[in-house]
Write a structure and sequence with these properties.
Its EC number is 2.7.4.25. The chain has helices spanning 16-27, 34-47, 58-64, 97-106, 110-123, 136-140, 154-167, 174-190, 212-226, and strands spanning 5-10, 30-33, 70-75, 80-85, 88-89, 129-133, 146-151, 203-206. By secondary structure, the chain is of the alpha/beta class. Bound molecules: cytidine-5'-monophosphate. Cytidine-5'-monophosphate is lined by residues 12, 34-35, 38-39, 103-104, 107, 133-136, 184, 188.
């Protein structure tokens, strides 16, 4: 059976990564969290003083892009690959609301996208990959055999993200999480370079009222039909 490329795009916190991880594990494919790469660049900018309270130094970031090395290493215990920035595991640090608050602005910079898209295409060149993000079916792998587009109401998405953050001990309010989800949707869908949009050949899945199991069996069925 030949391996295929599976592109999963959609709005923030629609459960893309959960289903992508399940699918990759089931099919024996590589899972790539492209959002983690934009988060890693954002984390680099934060650590290197390129971000102020409301803005960031775009020119300096572009100048320093060649100093940003992002890699993934499979963690057996977790069952998925964690993200590394210049050799350091930053999987936990990139999931904070602070990083979420800036990542969409950084992801709107064309030079950042160019570098990350090239790396993503390299990672998927042999197929057998499930990649989730915002532009995977429209830019990174336009010829992906299966393209999914995940949607859910903003309130459902904010509730899920709020539960995730509070369960790991972050002190956040539901209102702040909801605002972040809505703000990111806006920036991601209105940016000039590679805006979030459903690819013409993508299958839309609204998981507002689906359990994780229901979602997985639906997606698995689509994957099996495509392979
Ligand atoms: O998937 P996640 O929510 O972690 O992505 C964080 C942010 O990275 C998104 O809100 C978006 O701004 C950006 N992103 C992107 N293109 C991708 C993946 C993520 O612009 N392929």
């Amino acid at each position: 059976m030949g391996k295929i490329t599976i592109a999963i795009d959609g709005y923030s916190s629609t459960g893309k990564s959960t289903v992508a991880k399940q699918l990759a594990k089931h099919l024996g494919y590589v899972y790539v969290d492209s959002g983690a790469m934009y988060r890693a660049v954002t984390f680099y900018a934060m650590q290197n003083g390129l971000i102020t309270e409301t803005d960031f130094n775009k020119e300096a970031l572009i100048y320093q892009l060649n100093k940003i090395n992002i890699s993934f290493k499979f963690n057996e215990a977790l069952g998925f690959a964690e993200v590394y920035l210049n050799g350091n595991n930053i999987e936990k640090q990139i999931r904070t609301l602070e990083v979420s608050g800036f990542v969409s602005k950084i992801a709107a910079v064309s030079e950042v996208r160019e570098q990350l898209v090239e790396q993503q295409q390299q990672m998927g060149k042999d197929k057998g990959v499930v990649m989730d993000g915002r532009d995977i079916g429209t830019v990174v792998f336009t010829d992906a055999e299966l393209k999914l587009f995940m949607v859910a109401s903003a309130e459902k998405r904010a509730t899920r993200r709020y539960n995730e953050l509070t369960e790991r001990g972050d002190s956040v309010t539901y209102e702040a999480v909801l605002k972040n989800v809505v703000d990111r949707d806006y920036i991601d869908t209105t940016r000039k370079d590679s805006p979030l949009v459903k690819a013409d050949d993508a299958i839309e899945i609204d998981n507002s009222n689906m359990t994780k199991d229901e979602q997985f069996s639906k997606v698995l069925q689509l994957a099996i039909m495509t392979v």
